[in-house]
Amino acid sequence: MTAPATTGAPGTAVKSLYVYGITPAGIRAPRSPGVDGARVRLLTGSGLCAAVSDAPARLLPRRRDLLAHQAVLDELAAQGPLLPMRFAVLSPRADTLLTQLRSDVDHLQRQLAEVRGCVELNVKGTVVPGHFADLVRRDDSLRTLALRTRRRPDYEANVRLGEALALGVRREARRAAREVLDRLTPLAVRAAGGTTDEQQVLSTSFLVRAEDEGRFRKAVDAGARAVGGRLALSVTGPLPCYSFVEARPAPAGR
Amino acid sequence: MITYDDEVVCAPRAGTLYDVLELILDRGMVIDVFVRVSLVGIEILKVDARIVVASVDTYLRFAEACNRLDLEHDVRSKTVPEMFGSPVAKSVGKAGAKRTARSLTDKVRDVLAPDDDSDDADDADDTDELPRGRSARGRGEERSERPRGRSSGRSRAEEDRPRDRPRRRPRREDA
């Protein structure tokens, strides 16, 4: 199999290392197989460990590789604080990686301290379209519009009615999302909003102390009961703290 | 993607790999001297993950569902036979027999409940807390007995199965 052009610079395909995450020194190597089934090992230096494996010749966001990345990080996170890497971060060579750890050590240790004892919980909320029926019955102007459209049905009127209903359920879902955020944010150390769209109106990660996870989940349950007719909630976690590490360490020497 | 049943989702769904894709791909640390492989396919994945729903087609489906609603009668005077024959229940049928059955069960429970609190749940925020809480708790418990309940959500790898998908993206059932 030839390496595709997407694997980057020449030479990276064979010798480079796939980097999973950085932890304090002194942890066990994860047993979960890494990306492409590779064995995961630890590189230790400057009081830190980097979990790495040989990079596959061909790296694609395949489902099993995303799951492997996640499984390795889960195993590392179970042992203590972890700075998770994004999927598909490679280091050209082991010595480059160790040099980088040495120059960034203060910054990396500070970040590790910030996520120590914490997990990430991701909460998403999607619009419940069926809420339109409640809206029509409750909102006089929508009801009037619906009855008028029924008496004189035509294409334009139906589009106008449908648009008003779509806006209505989305507005209600967004309002519900704010209520949920207000409930959950006080229970978290930090919160980080993600991208939302017209269907998924809530997507926020929370940095939660591990001992508060149960309380947080109860609050999500209560939130789901309170807003369930308008907003369908999902919660994912505990996750490695993807959203609460700085994407790039400060340049060395600053 | 859009179904128009009036199902109330009282228990949070457990997340899947799909739910954390953006975190794995867009968050987490990157180190400058490292190479981040450019991944053909990621853009496609993400486009797939965020389907745009605001379209005339969506509006027309909303309007169609609305035109089948019984708006002439007061909601509170619903009866069981009326509910079974109601246009909303029929429209649910398009999304699959299972959903219909569940939705009908919910409807029957709503109708039989002493307080018809599902229709004015939003109005009840400050004035009617007790009946609403009681009803919501009952439903939540029943739902949590289902396989997708929260208690099974801890293991992401195991949870990452397609059965969770239709809940949020019901249209895929039609595909």
TrEMBL record, chain A:
GO cellular component: a single term: gas vesicle
Chief place where the protein resides: other
Alphabetized UniProt keyword annotations: Gas vesicle
Location within or outside the cell: Gas vesicle
InterPro entries attached to this UniProt entry: GvpL/GvpF
The keyword Metal-binding is annotated on this UniProt entry: no
GO biological process terms on file: gas vesicle organization
Domain of life, per lineage: Bacteria
Stated family: Belongs to the gas vesicle GvpF/GvpL family.
Protein name per Swiss-Prot or TrEMBL: Gas vesicle protein
Organism: Streptomyces parvulus
UniProtKB/TrEMBL annotation, chain B:
Function: Gas vesicles are hollow, gas filled proteinaceous nanostructures found in some microorganisms. During planktonic growth they allow positioning of the organism at a favorable depth for light or nutrient acquisition. GvpA forms the protein shell.
Pfam families hit by this protein: Gas_vesicle
Homology family: Belongs to the gas vesicle GvpA family.
Entry GO terms, CC: gas vesicle shell; vesicle membrane
Organism: Streptomyces parvulus
The keyword Nucleus is assigned to this record: no
NCBIfam families hit by this protein: PRK09368.1
Record keywords: Gas vesicle
Localisation per UniProt entry: Gas vesicle shell
Bias-annotated ranges (Basic and acidic residues): 138-148
GO molecular function terms noted in the UniProt entry: structural molecule activity
UniProt-recorded name of the protein: Gas vesicle protein A
Gene it is expressed from: gvpA
PANTHER family registered for this protein in UniProt: GAS VESICLE PROTEIN A1, GAS VESICLE STRUCTURAL PROTEIN 2-RELATED
Region annotated Disordered, chain positions: 83-175
Basic residues composition bias: residue spans: 164-175
Main location: other
Superkingdom of the organism of origin: Bacteria
InterPro entries named in the record: Gas-vesicle_GvpA-like (IPR000638), Gas_vesicle_GvpA (IPR047870), GvpA (IPR050530), GvpA-like_CS (IPR018493)
Subunit structure: The gas vesicle shell is 2 nm thick and consists of a single layer of this protein. It forms helical ribs nearly perpendicular to the long axis of the vesicle.
Ranges of Acidic residues composition bias in the record: 113-128
